[in-house]
Amino acid sequence: MYVDVVFPLKIPPLTYRIPADMPRDLKGRIVKAPLMGRSSYGLIVDVFNKADGPFKKGMKEIQSVHQQCASGTDLQFLKWLSHYYTTPMGIALKSCFFEEIVAALKKYEIAALNPVRYSDVPDSRIAGRPPDDYPGEAAGEKGLSHVCGSIRDRDYRTFLLHAPTAPLEHSLLLEILGNTGAAARGIIILVPEIRQIESLELPLGRMFEQRLCVLHSKLGKGKRTEAVRRLITGESDVVLGTRSAVLAPLRGVSFIAVLGEHSPSYKGEEGLRYNARDVAVMKGFIEKGCVLLSSVCPSTESVYNATISKYTQIAGNRIMPSRTPGPEASHMTGHGRPKIRIINQQGGKHKDLFITEELLKEAKKILSKNEGLLFLINRKGYSLIRCEDCGHIAQCKKCMMSLVFHKGEGRARCHYCGYEEGITDICGECKGTRIKAFGAGTERIKEEVEEMLKTEPLLIEKIKGSPKISSELSPDLSPLIIGTAYAARRIRGGEFSAAAFLNIDVLLAQPDFRAYERAFQEIMHISQMVRPGGTVFLQTRNPGDRVLRLIRNYDFEGFYNYELSQRKALDFPPFSRLILVNIFAKKLAAGLLSEIQTAVAESREEGAEVLGPVEIPSASKSHKYCIQVLIKSKNSKAANATVKGISNKLEKTGGLKVHVDVDPLKI
DNA sequence: AGCACGCCGACT
DNA sequence: GTCGGCGTGCTC
Length: 667
Description:
Distance between the termini: 47 Å
Oligomer: single chain
CATH architecture of the largest domain: 3-Layer(aba) Sandwich
Structural class: alpha/beta
Largest sheet: 7 strands, parallel
CATH superfamily of the largest domain: P-loop containing nucleotide triphosphate hydrolases
Number of strands: 27
Helix content: 25-40%
Number of domains: 4
CATH class of the largest domain: Alpha Beta
Radius of gyration: 27 Å
């Protein structure tokens, strides 16, 4: 007998011989096997007879066979993960906490793992009381009972909930768990960021007690091993965590909730670049568990999946595009949402100011009442650096990104690669001497606020160094807070009376087909920090912008209709699949580009479109050059095969490093 | 991941 | 002349 063993390493499965007197159920067992003159733990993923051969002579033998740790569906899931994200199975195994499993088994000498799966438990033991319908905003719709029924019946389904507000998103989840949690076995609850674990940990702890286990990437090695130990022994079967928790080694899954499903945090930027939301949907499918995706501003992809009935939409806002959209139906006011007001940034009395007269007036009103106000600007530092003579904007010598002027230090910095230089008053392009600050970052806004509003505002990133303050960051600290939308996510507690995006156009003009969607999500997120009846201001030079108007009206239906029509016209996701291939090189040799072009041409499958290759800046120290190829296809098999072909061909060529990013969020 | 092999800079 | 830097490659 022969077995294929996967090690948690970047290597393909290796084949070993196995003694004749071994147990029959070898698949999914942990084994100790010789590897590179030492012994390592791996997982049996396949079993072969002699007839399946021919096998290489002199193959090594398995040293010992241990516990069963992966079920048939676990192996199916592992293979899917490896195939879909074009990664060696070993990397997928490693991401699925295999090393922690081995460590837990070693440390606690868990003798025999009970192989019974939760799905094998008789129905009578997992029956719960019938749930009440969701009593919230959308009373009358049978959303909640549908989810609860689906969990109990192990009737696989993916639900999409468009929650009116984040607190309602939480309370709906808690209600579902309250109804079914006691009976359901194997539950995963995903939140986009670690800080969101805290607010759910208390009520979930009360509900599940020792069944609950928290899992996120900031957990130390010991705590991670302990969490995994609890899961594989069955002590815990409810996981609350971030992205990686979707890969937690649960013995069967009956329910997965993905809160803030639109969040880019679910997509990994390094290592195995999986999207936890998509993985959750596949895991639910494989495990016959129920999946709930929820968000106050769902991704266009998920909304599309609901319109084609791949997902089931439940109570909440109406977002499914309908044939006769009436204005009343689309205006989702109420729900305790703040007003959204568009401010025209064009013209006006003081053109050179970044805060319009209109906004200044509103700000004075709010500050006079001693209420909280939040200013958002999408750049750190003071400004860009521009030559008045030729219009040239100073750029980083390494990566072509704009340099940012930091007034306090009197230096220019590249926020992408960290390059820094002193400021000069001579233009690098035309030798002109009229060098001026251009545009505004947080520092410049602070200066303007001090002058125009005679207030000392709080700059969020300035206090980054002192974690004590940042964890308590709230509007109570200062009536006026300035920061980037990203930094503003660290603000908690209290509510603002108003928030203002000082330059929403920067967000809308991102060279990415998801720019509008991201802007909408950002605005929705910030609007959650403003009290009901308060206002979110959007300063823009395009007050007539169609999408801004849809956003202002909270017209989700109109927004998704527009977004989907745009994406369909351009064949972007969800109407196609994208795979980004980054080829890193040490030197930009003359033959390299043509070599890549040949590899691309030879690998291109029917139905796969190839964009590029183009050179993009590289952040890597050892590989200073990066060539990017974007694969776009309606046929995911063709896209996958094309990428596999390209990376196989190029990886054989020395000196190249190939990174594959399936379903990239940023392009 | 480890561990070996291998090819260029600062030391006895 | 050698010691050692870590970049590259292999593991049944």
